[in-house]
């Protein structure tokens, strides 16, 4: 690869794993990092959406791998990481993006609601990192980028369970950053405001007053391509116009 090609594709040689990568923010992140040269693995629960997104990734001239997986289950995660590395090579960038939302007063929600949100938004990050971080430690480098939310920094009516998951993710990410930085591994968190996706949010969104999935993907790419001697610990992302 010549200097011009390396400049255009600064992530050439990288391998990225994006959870929830078949649609919405995850898909945008996968395509953005692929456009910068990274091979990309994606997981999700919709096999047809995964196949379609993987084809889009390959059309950008990089290798892709997709697998259906439930990121709340440790056996699924172990198989996902093993097959990703066997197919594409060592994971250098992990993007923990999978997330769901359940909204309304916490006292009116069920234990199943709590478990579903906390398992997806928080436990999955613990499970993925527990498998991937030791592999990165052995190689002495890696990026772990967790997609949180401004709801992880602010409270709002009806946000009890969702905010609990994202506030927890903020704490987990900050502690992981301290645990792993001495091994050359950077842990960052991206906190977007409302994004125009089919995510189950709190109501209709004015498209002119919300972020796009590509806005979030741009922030992730910026983190992944920062200089090797530094790391961006947190990005707060807001639309220009207030909702």
Overview of the structural elements:
By secondary structure, the chain is α/β, with parallel strands linked by helices. It is built from seven helices and seven strands; from the N terminus they run αβαβαβαβαβαβαβ. The chain has a seven-stranded parallel β-sheet with strand order 3-2-1-4-5-6-7, with helices on both faces. Helix 2 packs parallel to helix 3 (about 45-60) and helix 5 (about 110-140) runs parallel beside helix 6. The N and C termini lie far apart (about 45 Å).
The geometry reads as: globular
Q: What is the fold named in CATH at topology level?
A: Rossmann fold
Low-confidence stretches: none
Alpha-carbon Rg, integer = 17 Å
**SSE sequence, one letter per element:** HEHEHEHEHEHEHE
Query: Would you report the number of β strands?
Result: 7
Query: Termini distance?
Result: 45 Å
User: Biggest β-sheet, characterized?
Assistant: 7 strands, parallel
**Strand percentage, roughly?**
15-25%
CATH class (first level) name? Alpha Beta
Keywords:
16% strand; Rossmann fold; 7 helices; alpha/beta; globular
């Amino acid at each position: 690869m010549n200097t011009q090609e390396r400049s255009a594709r600064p992530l050439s040689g990288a391998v990225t794993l994006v959870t929830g990568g078949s649609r919405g923010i995850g898909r945008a992140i996968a395509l953005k990092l692929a456009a910068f040269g990274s091979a990309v693995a994606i997981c999700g629960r919709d096999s047809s959406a995964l196949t379609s997104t993987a084809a889009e990734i390959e059309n950008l001239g990089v290798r892709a791998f997709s697998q259906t997986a439930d990121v709340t289950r440790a056996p699924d995660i172990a198989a996902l990481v093993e097959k990703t590395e066997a197919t594409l090579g060592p994971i250098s960038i992990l993007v923990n993006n999978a997330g769901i939302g359940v909204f309304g007063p916490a006292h009116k929600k069920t234990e199943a609601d709590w478990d579903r949100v906390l398992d997806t938004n928080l436990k999955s990050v613990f499970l993925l990192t527990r498998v991937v971080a030791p592999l990165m430690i052995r190689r002495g480098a890696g990026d772990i980028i967790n997609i949180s939310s401004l709801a992880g920094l602010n409270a709002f009516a009806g946000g009890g369970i969702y905010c609990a998951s994202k506030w927890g993710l903020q704490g987990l990410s900050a502690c992981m950053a301290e645990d792993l930085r001495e091994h050359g591994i950077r842990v960052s968190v991206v906190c977007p405001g409302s994004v125009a996706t089919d995510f189950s949010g709190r109501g209709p969104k004015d498209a002119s007053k919300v972020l796009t999935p590509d806005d979030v993907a741009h922030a992730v790419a910026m983190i992944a391509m920062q200089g090797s001697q530094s790391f961006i610990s947190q990005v707060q992302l807001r639309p220009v116009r207030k909702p």
